[in-house]
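A note on notation is needed here, since sequence and fold are reported together in a single record. The reader may check this reading against the record printed directly beneath this paragraph.
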Amino acid sequence: MTDKSALPAGWSGTAPDADAMFAMAEVALDTMPAVFLPHLQGVVILIEEFADDEVLKSLDIEHPYDLTGVYEGRPLTERSIGESGGMPDRVTLYRIPILVEWIETGERLDRLVRHVLIHEIGHHFGFSDDDMHTLEDMA
C-alpha cells in the first residue's frame, strides 16, 4: 500500500490533472539553487495536454507524444541590458507525454516533472545539455 503522505500535494495516486502537475512543478522550482531564483522571476510555467501543431512543426517533431516540455523566450545569454517589452518567457510542460513517459519508464512522476522543468529552465539560461545535467544535480 502506498503511503499517501509521501505523494506530491494534490495527487491521489491516479493520473494527476493539470493543477496537480503544476503543484509538482512549483515544488521542483523551489529546489532550484538560490542563485538562479532571481533570474526566474517573471518566467511563466504552464501545463498543457499536448503541444499544438505549430510548436511541433517549429521544432521539427512529428508526434505530440515526443515532446514533454518547451521553453519559449529569449535566453538570458542572448539579451542586451537595454531590452524591454515583449512577451514573458514561458516553460510549458505537456501533461500527456509526461504521463506516458512516467508509465513507460517507471520513474517517480514528481522526479520526471522536475527533470523536464529543469531542462526547459536550462534553455532560459542558455545552458548546454551538460550544464543542464549539472543544474539538475545541484537542485
